[in-house]
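Table S2 (text version). Query chain:
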Amino acid sequence: MPELPEAETIVRTLAPHVEGRRIVGLRFHAVRARMGEIPPVEGRVVRRVSRYGKQVLLELDDGALLIQLRMTGALVWNGAPGPYTRAVLELENGAVCFNDIRQFGSIRWLSAPPRNLGPDPLEIPLEAFVRRLEAHRGRIKPLLLDQRFVRGLGNIYVDEILFRAGIHPRARVSRLSRERAARLHRSMEVVLRLAIDRGGSSISDYVDAEGRRGSFQELHQAYGRAGAPCFACGRAIRRIVVGQRGTHYCPKCQRP
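Corresponding structure-token output:
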């Protein structure tokens, strides 16, 4: 947390407040929040707020600030700074607080747009997705979590996508038929768009830029439901470990 839907929701709720606004200052309250050297940004204008995978990108008139939210990062518009506020971006019309309880997140400077990760799962066409699958081996869940394969997916949404697609998290990528690959691609789009429409999943601390919680957790069919009955077949949802990640699936509905 946050993953792609949460980052997208933050972007959509933050953009109307900051796009076109001039930066007054950037103050760090924690050393770990600053990743590398950041040149003075005072006087620069925020031209666009966008998402790169799970990260938020503030594109300025010269360069950009890349904000990695990681486990507990949040960007709150005009929120009151508190004990977990690690940085404050001051603009001519207000301020953005970067709050991060566990301090895994960071802000870094980019002189050029990032290109180090895989394609966005909401933008990759089916044929390109199938070709990327055909180029890999191993288990499907670790592959979907690999940001070099597609960027933005995390533990919550991979579990939900695989459940909707009816694919076991330990399924071999090389054994996926084209039909199942197409179902996976469609499930990825449906789950992510629905999660964005519901403002993301507020499992613990996540809120959007206006301090509101998401509600997609109310629609989870697999993630976090170990022992509960599957909504499709009634069998108990199981929890296993795949690629060192807690994984939830239905043993009847999801085939290897």
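Notes on Table S2: The chain has a mean pLDDT of 97. The longest strand covers residues 46-52.
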